[in-house]
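Agenda item 2: adenosine-5'-diphosphate complex prediction
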Amino acid sequence: MAGSPPPPPPLPLSAKLTVLRGVGPTFAAALAENGIETVRDLLLNLPYRYVDRGSVLRIGELDRRPVPPDFEREIVTVMGVLKDLRQTTTRIQRMTLIEALLDDGTGPLRLIWFNQAYLARVLKPGDRILAFGPLSMGRHGLEMRGPAFEVVGRGTDAPEDLWVRRFLPLYRKMGPLTGRVRQRLVQEALDRAQPPEEWLPMDLARGLPGTLPALRLLHQPGDDSDPGELEARATPAHRRLASEELFAFALGVTLRRAGRLKRRGLVVPTSPELRERLKAFLPFHLTGAQRTAFKEIVEDLTSGRVMNRLLQGDVGSGKTLVAFLAMAMVAETGGQAALLVPTEVLARQHAATFERLLKEDAPRMQLLLGTMKAAEKRDALARIASGEARYVVGTHALFQESVAFSRLELVVVDEQHRFGVKQREALKAKGLDPHWLVMSATPIPRSLALALFGDLEQSVLDELPPGRQPIGTRLLEPDDAEIAWEAVERELEAGRQAFVVSPAIDPADETKVRLRDIQAMEALLQGRFPDTPIAVVHGRLKGDELESRMEAFVKGEARILLATTVIEVGVDVPNATVMVVDHAERFGLSQLHQLRGRVGRGRVRSRFLMISGSDTERLRALVETQDGFRIAQKDLELRGPGEFFGTRQSGIPQFQVADLVRDRQLLARCRESAEKVAQRGLGDALAAWLRQEQARLRLAEIS
Ligand code: ADP
Ligand code: MG
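Presented output:
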């Protein structure tokens, strides 16, 4: 027999997870679905909580004294093995109950979950779990209702050796990665990982632990660590990892901007005649802010560089008109300009606005929609290809293969496709490099916008058109909802229209029993307003059905629009003068402010009524101010950037450790460093690291 096998070679952090013992292709694929592909991905998924073993209580020693019904219950942590797992249905409310006994050797504790049938699939008898929840006395003795839990061991392979260290790290669930398995993988990864090269510039790295020691500190904290500090992500170890992410981000942004400034942009010729012509389009005087923004755009379009500008402005600040003027600059000097919007209803609406502005020149405008009939579409494409269509308005159909422009010089991206990076790349692949203007629907606090979108120039519309009346905003207790329905009734009687917004409710939501869903709201409205045509729209409708219902409301055939948040993206119905939002606590402040911007577009004073039985302190911000930037700042502080930006499609990086709000000073420092590094030149090795990090953070490639 040979001696012990040689130790496995050290692993680079970029190694695929299959190099770890016990990770086969199927397991790796399941992890990949959760975005965990490499050793680095695994290690950068940090614990969200650290349980102090000193604070785990023994079941036999729990306090069994009864607590009167309206007194707060203490939340306790226990750990044991699950027995007797079963699913039943309550007789009265037909709720699904999952019940189990948890045994830690000192006695069993009954655990109960309501309406979470999926737990029957997640939990198995024999699992060792850590449960946190409130204690109460039930018919069968002591019980814990609706506990949060973590599976720390499965089946017989649930030894006690988790307790060698004082702090047990808990992680967010990731597919098949349960606590115990994850800890074993993390352990192996930490033991075998090769210390990566130092990529942070000295000024950023000073005083911080290396990458690998930082990861070890966070996954396996020493017994004298402070779990509060770890959970707040405020340690030098966190700063090391956050700095790497932010530096990679900042460097990418810096290089992207530098690359763009080097490219030659089409110069749009200006002349006094052009200026006169644009003026003739204007139905009203521009606000000061609109004038400034337009001037900045003109400077870009005539500079010989490629414009990439973010136009920010509160809802109702008049971004469309600025976009139109920019497009007219190009279109009236022989080029083509395209406006990309997220939905067909919006595309039609913008097209109608453009037709009004263009008057007798309206035939220069062309709409392009995915759902057009074949003949109509063929005609549209021909007009775009020939250059006859100068103003093109459409949805993502604009960027399909079959669309050929004759002289595309400017693209304006409205609302949801917020930063349009992908579309831009697609065009570049076709050899097109037009000027680019993106309009953000959600105001982003200025300091953050500068840090985040450093590759964009920025204009801000910080002024509303004159004569806008503030929208009467109220917060109502559910018991006072009648006040809202009376307001709706008054507006309907005066010939106007109303929005009612219901939150989209996830069926797996455990609080669902207490929420009024959209069907219940529809029934309520039908009862309260029996002869009123109501259009109901929600996320599960097919595209054309959604469009036709929205259209009915825009045309005034439907008098009430009942919706989940889909209307958020911006229909303009000036005749709608009241909006009621049910369960307002389910929405972000910025979202509510956007919704509020849907009314108050006509001359009549409009009303915005929020119904909510909780969270009133937060919601009061909307009653107190109508300034979208201030609301955004508050929202960002309260919810954090992930929720605020709505992740994924927003074009905002998916940082693992960095937090754009908490770490904004660090981001500023990373930007300064990145500028210096970019000026000196990167070198191949740093460039390779950057590409890797950008892929991991799902950032747009440097180009
Ligand atoms: P948003 O910035 O939310 O996209 P819009 O472009 O839809 O705002 O403009 C909101 C409303 O204000 C529209 O009805 C538009 O016609 C009107 N508007 C825009 N600019 C002015 C202006 N300078 N004076 C008066 N009304 C304006
Ligand atoms: Mg708009």
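Discussion summary: The radius of gyration is 29 Å.
Owner for follow-up: CH.
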